[in-house]
Design goal:
The structure is a single chain. It is built from 3 helices and 2 strands. It is mainly alpha-helical. It has one domain. A two-stranded antiparallel sheet has the order 1-2. The radius of gyration is 14 Å and the shape is elongated. The two termini are 20 Å apart.
């Protein structure tokens, strides 16, 4: 079985500006650059989809509940 590698580690609010920064950070990591082209494209696409879902569906302005920022690892 292949060994797990951490490509990205982020905790905090996820907005479109953050998504752009995280994607730029991802494509510069050594682990990402070592992936074959097909796998890299799939990882990138999955990351985009996950981050957009977190951005769209997370609680942003809930006054009654303590805001807990998403963790993406």
């Amino acid at each position: 079985m292949a060994q797990a590698v951490k490509l990205l580690d982020y905790t905090g609010p996820v907005v479109h500006k953050t998504i752009d920064q995280l994607l730029k950070k991802l494509i510069k990591t050594e682990a990402y650059l070592s992936l074959d082209r097909t796998t890299a494209k799939r990882v990138y696409g999955i990351l985009v989809e996950c981050l957009e879902n977190i951005s769209k569906h997370s609680e942003k302005n809930c006054l009654k509940v303590k805001i807990i920022h998403p963790i993406f690892l």
